Give the backbone structure.
Amino acid sequence: MSKIGVITFSDGRPYVHQELLPMNIKFQENLILKLTEAGHEVVVADELPWTNESAVSAGKKMLRADVDCTIFNYAIWAWPHFTVLAAQFAPGPFLCLSNINPGYPGLVGMMASSGALENVGIPNTRISGDIASESVFYKAQTFINAASCVKSLRGETFGCFGGRPMGMYTATVGTDTLMKTFGVDIEHIDQWEIVRRSENLLKNHRGKIENAFDWCKKNIGKIVYDGKQLTPDILKKQIASYYAVKELCQEMHLDFCGIKGQPELTNNFCTMDVAEAFMNDPYDFDGPKEPVVCSTEADMDAALTMEIMKKLAKTPVLFADVRHWNDDYQFLDLCNSGEHATYFANASFDYRDNLPQVTFYPEGFYFQAGGAAVHHLAKAGKVTLARLGRKDGEYWMAILTGEFVRYDEKTNLELMARTQSEWPHAFCHLDTTIDRFIAKFPCNHLHAVYGNYVNELKMVCEMLGICWEII
């Protein structure tokens, strides 16, 4: 989970500090217990700050421990400048937490201290309540989840295979902009490296490719060969492409990535559908693994949105085109060539639950080089949807909620045939009107996870200093 710093502040008068120390420590222990029960690692100040020196020392301990965020804890009146001094060293983001202790002015101390932080330009989040209360702890958990996400983003590297896809402004951003806003670097890699490594794997590591091919034959629900767009040899080429991308990410220490694909690879080599799907999955041909966000069309803002959502939800993240609004059924068909992780077929971390519902179909006319389209229909369930966009060069995030739905098999097939039968689909009822969605949403690509992460996304945006809007 997360590494959390806890500093419980005290009164600067020696006799008050000593008199109330047992009470203050008890409130700190309650907080520590709740955090550790939730699976977090907790780093505690050696001394409850009641002097300038002890406040600085507490902050420096958090810095040395490299905590993901710091909770400033208040159960009694605490001199506000201690918090400001500790914040000069302790890593943010900062949560100012006031415990319920009505006989003593802990809330007053928290309000004065958080106000002092704002005076000097240090952002902070405020919570007041009994940490044993589930509603209060949910707020604290939301903060911790968002803070850990922001902290872990910084220093990551996005691997961009290829360049801008088919003229999409919304898919490409400069390295300086991504670093300034998110602390993320970009490594550009030519797509030829995927081709070169794939061909080497097919030539010199045939056994590895054959084992993965046999795994697909055994576990994929159906593989539909047509002798042209999809053959065993083309599928093996796609499998080799997956291994090539995976190896490049490992060797170049890429945390997440995107593949341009169109038109060079899709016209002359093979589609990247298999590579993109299994990069995003929590398993591959060799067993369980950590999902690595991989966006199609090398969409940088898509991959960054997905990386944030993956960190919050701890699951794979959907990548889809905003393809078609079905007015008769009132749902948005989210459909894209193979980019959906197979995880979404049954929302399971076990491939045996998902893959029986997956079909490898031959690609359509768009992709002359051929390949398997990784087809399935997303499992029904409540979802959070989001996308980072840019207005006049400034980042913002569109956030909304909805529900993936399924119908009977015959209806599902008829509805998928309206757009692209061979591609994966998610049928999404939106918790907004389609007119408002179209008017507000920033681009053609959308991303989703099961569950409700609206509050976490809002808090991530606030910690990053970017705007958000609920559609």
